Protein backbone atom coordinates (compact mmCIF):
# COMPACT_ATOMS: atom_id res chain seq x y z
CA UNK A 1 0.00 0.00 0.00
CA UNK A 2 2.90 2.36 0.61
CA UNK A 3 3.99 1.99 -3.01
CA UNK A 4 0.44 2.79 -4.14
CA UNK A 5 0.47 5.95 -2.01
CA UNK A 6 3.79 6.95 -3.58
CA UNK A 7 2.47 6.27 -7.07
CA UNK A 8 -0.57 8.44 -6.37
CA UNK A 9 1.64 11.28 -5.11
CA UNK A 10 3.64 10.96 -8.32
CA UNK A 11 0.43 11.06 -10.36
CA UNK A 12 -0.60 14.24 -8.50
CA UNK A 13 2.74 15.87 -9.27
CA UNK A 14 2.59 14.89 -12.94
CA UNK A 15 -1.06 15.92 -13.36
CA UNK A 16 -0.35 19.19 -11.62
CA UNK A 17 2.60 19.87 -13.91
CA UNK A 18 0.28 19.48 -16.89
CA UNK A 19 -2.70 21.36 -15.44
CA UNK A 20 -1.11 24.24 -13.49
CA UNK A 21 0.14 26.32 -16.43
CA UNK A 22 -3.39 26.29 -17.86
CA UNK A 23 -5.37 26.59 -14.64
CA UNK A 24 -5.97 30.35 -14.97
CA UNK A 25 -7.34 30.07 -18.49
CA UNK A 26 -9.50 26.95 -18.16
CA UNK A 27 -12.31 25.98 -15.89
CA UNK A 28 -10.73 23.47 -13.58
CA UNK A 29 -13.47 22.36 -11.18
CA UNK A 30 -13.44 18.78 -12.45
CA UNK A 31 -9.63 18.66 -12.53
CA UNK A 32 -9.49 20.03 -9.00
CA UNK A 33 -12.07 17.54 -7.75
CA UNK A 34 -10.10 14.67 -9.28
CA UNK A 35 -6.85 15.93 -7.74
CA UNK A 36 -8.49 16.19 -4.31
CA UNK A 37 -9.97 12.69 -4.68
CA UNK A 38 -6.59 11.19 -5.65
CA UNK A 39 -4.95 12.96 -2.70
CA UNK A 40 -7.63 11.55 -0.40
CA UNK A 41 -6.98 8.03 -1.65
CA UNK A 42 -3.22 8.52 -1.23
CA UNK A 43 -3.79 9.71 2.35
CA UNK A 44 -6.04 6.74 3.12
CA UNK A 45 -3.45 4.33 1.75
CA UNK A 46 -0.65 6.00 3.70
CA UNK A 47 -2.72 5.96 6.88
CA UNK A 48 -3.56 2.28 6.39
CA UNK A 49 0.07 1.41 5.68
CA UNK A 50 1.54 3.11 8.73
CA UNK A 51 5.25 3.54 9.30
CA UNK A 52 7.49 2.49 6.45
CA UNK A 53 11.22 2.23 5.85
CA UNK A 54 13.46 5.27 5.57
CA UNK A 55 13.83 4.97 1.79
CA UNK A 56 10.07 4.98 1.25
CA UNK A 57 9.75 7.91 3.68
CA UNK A 58 12.33 9.92 1.74
CA UNK A 59 10.64 9.23 -1.59
CA UNK A 60 7.31 10.10 0.04
CA UNK A 61 8.69 13.45 1.21
CA UNK A 62 10.03 14.30 -2.25
CA UNK A 63 6.81 13.30 -3.98
CA UNK A 64 4.68 15.14 -1.39
CA UNK A 65 6.63 18.35 -2.00
CA UNK A 66 6.28 17.90 -5.77
CA UNK A 67 2.55 17.19 -5.47
CA UNK A 68 2.11 20.18 -3.17
CA UNK A 69 3.97 22.52 -5.51
CA UNK A 70 2.48 21.38 -8.80
CA UNK A 71 -1.00 20.11 -7.93
CA UNK A 72 -2.32 23.11 -6.04
CA UNK A 73 -2.79 25.47 -8.98
CA UNK A 74 -5.98 23.91 -10.35
CA UNK A 75 -7.34 23.49 -6.82
CA UNK A 76 -6.70 27.12 -5.84
CA UNK A 77 -8.19 28.35 -9.13
CA UNK A 78 -11.30 26.21 -8.66
CA UNK A 79 -11.74 27.52 -5.11
CA UNK A 80 -11.37 31.10 -6.34
CA UNK A 81 -14.02 30.53 -9.00
CA UNK A 82 -16.37 28.84 -6.53
CA UNK A 83 -15.98 31.65 -4.01
CA UNK A 84 -16.68 34.36 -6.57
CA UNK A 85 -19.94 36.05 -5.52
CA UNK A 86 -20.46 37.84 -8.81
CA UNK A 87 -20.57 35.83 -12.00
CA UNK A 88 -21.55 38.80 -14.16
CA UNK A 89 -19.07 40.10 -16.75
CA UNK A 90 -19.48 43.73 -15.65
CA UNK A 91 -16.77 43.94 -12.99
CA UNK A 92 -13.43 42.43 -12.12
CA UNK A 93 -13.82 39.36 -9.96
CA UNK A 94 -11.63 37.46 -7.53
CA UNK A 95 -11.39 34.63 -10.06
CA UNK A 96 -10.04 37.00 -12.73
CA UNK A 97 -6.41 35.98 -13.39
CA UNK A 98 -5.58 39.59 -14.27
CA UNK A 99 -6.07 40.49 -10.60
CA UNK A 100 -2.71 39.85 -8.88
CA UNK A 101 -0.91 38.69 -12.01
CA UNK A 102 1.76 36.05 -11.53
CA UNK A 103 -0.24 34.22 -8.90
CA UNK A 104 0.18 30.85 -10.57
CA UNK A 105 3.94 30.78 -10.23
CA UNK A 106 3.94 32.54 -6.88
CA UNK A 107 1.58 29.78 -5.75
CA UNK A 108 4.00 27.07 -6.90
CA UNK A 109 6.79 28.69 -4.89
CA UNK A 110 4.50 29.28 -1.91
CA UNK A 111 3.32 25.66 -1.78
CA UNK A 112 6.90 24.42 -2.10
CA UNK A 113 7.98 26.65 0.78
CA UNK A 114 5.02 25.57 2.93
CA UNK A 115 5.70 21.88 2.33
CA UNK A 116 9.44 22.14 2.99
CA UNK A 117 8.94 24.34 6.05
CA UNK A 118 6.45 21.97 7.67
CA UNK A 119 8.40 18.84 6.81
CA UNK A 120 11.53 20.43 8.28
CA UNK A 121 9.62 21.05 11.52
CA UNK A 122 9.94 24.84 11.24
CA UNK A 123 6.23 25.70 11.44
CA UNK A 124 7.07 29.26 12.53
CA UNK A 125 8.33 29.69 9.00
CA UNK A 126 4.72 29.69 7.80
CA UNK A 127 4.15 33.06 9.46
CA UNK A 128 7.30 34.42 7.85
CA UNK A 129 6.23 33.11 4.45
CA UNK A 130 2.75 34.66 4.62
CA UNK A 131 4.19 37.96 5.88
CA UNK A 132 6.68 38.10 3.02
CA UNK A 133 3.97 37.30 0.51
CA UNK A 134 1.76 40.05 1.93
CA UNK A 135 4.61 42.57 1.85
CA UNK A 136 5.37 41.68 -1.74
CA UNK A 137 1.75 42.33 -2.74
CA UNK A 138 1.11 45.24 -0.35
CA UNK A 139 0.43 47.92 -2.97
CA UNK A 140 -1.84 45.64 -4.98
CA UNK A 141 -3.91 44.56 -1.96
CA UNK A 142 -5.61 47.95 -1.61
CA UNK A 143 -8.27 46.91 -4.12
CA UNK A 144 -11.00 44.82 -2.42
CA UNK A 145 -11.08 42.25 -5.21
CA UNK A 146 -7.29 41.84 -4.99
CA UNK A 147 -7.31 41.34 -1.22
CA UNK A 148 -10.13 38.80 -1.58
CA UNK A 149 -8.17 36.87 -4.22
CA UNK A 150 -5.06 37.03 -2.05
CA UNK A 151 -6.77 35.59 1.03
CA UNK A 152 -8.77 32.90 -0.75
CA UNK A 153 -5.90 31.84 -2.99
CA UNK A 154 -3.38 31.75 -0.15
CA UNK A 155 -5.65 29.66 2.07
CA UNK A 156 -6.61 27.21 -0.69
CA UNK A 157 -3.02 26.88 -1.79
CA UNK A 158 -1.73 26.44 1.75
CA UNK A 159 -4.34 23.84 2.66
CA UNK A 160 -3.46 21.85 -0.45
CA UNK A 161 0.23 21.92 0.47
CA UNK A 162 -0.51 20.85 4.04
CA UNK A 163 -2.72 17.99 2.83
CA UNK A 164 0.09 16.74 0.57
CA UNK A 165 2.56 16.97 3.45
CA UNK A 166 0.07 15.03 5.54
CA UNK A 167 0.52 11.99 3.29
CA UNK A 168 4.28 12.06 3.88
CA UNK A 169 3.71 12.46 7.63
CA UNK A 170 1.32 9.49 7.64
CA UNK A 171 4.05 7.37 6.07
CA UNK A 172 6.37 8.33 8.94
CA UNK A 173 4.01 7.35 11.76
The tally of helices reads 6
The rounded distance between the terminal residues' Cα atoms is 14 Å
| Uncertain residue ranges | none
Q: Briefly note the structural class of the backbone.
A: mainly alpha
Helix coverage percent: over 70%
* Biggest sheet architecture: none
Proportion of residues in extended strands? under 5%
Order of helices and strands: HHHHHH
The overall strand count is 0
Radius of gyration based on Cα positions: 16 Å
The shape, in one word, is globular
Mean pLDDT figure: 84
Structural description of this entry:
The protein is an all-alpha fold and about 170 residues long. About 75% of the residues lie in helices and about 0% in strands. The chain has six helices and no strands. The chain has helices at about 1-20, 30-50, 55-85, 105-120, 125-135, 145-170. Helix 1 packs antiparallel against helix 2, helix 1 (about 1-20) packs across helix 3 (about 55-85) and helix 4 (about 105-120) runs parallel beside helix 6 (about 145-170).
Amino acid sequence: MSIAALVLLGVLAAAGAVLTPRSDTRRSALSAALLVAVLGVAAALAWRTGRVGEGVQNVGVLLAVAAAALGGGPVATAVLRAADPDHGPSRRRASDPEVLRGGTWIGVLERTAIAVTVLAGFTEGLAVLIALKGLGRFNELKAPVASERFIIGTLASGLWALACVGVAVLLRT
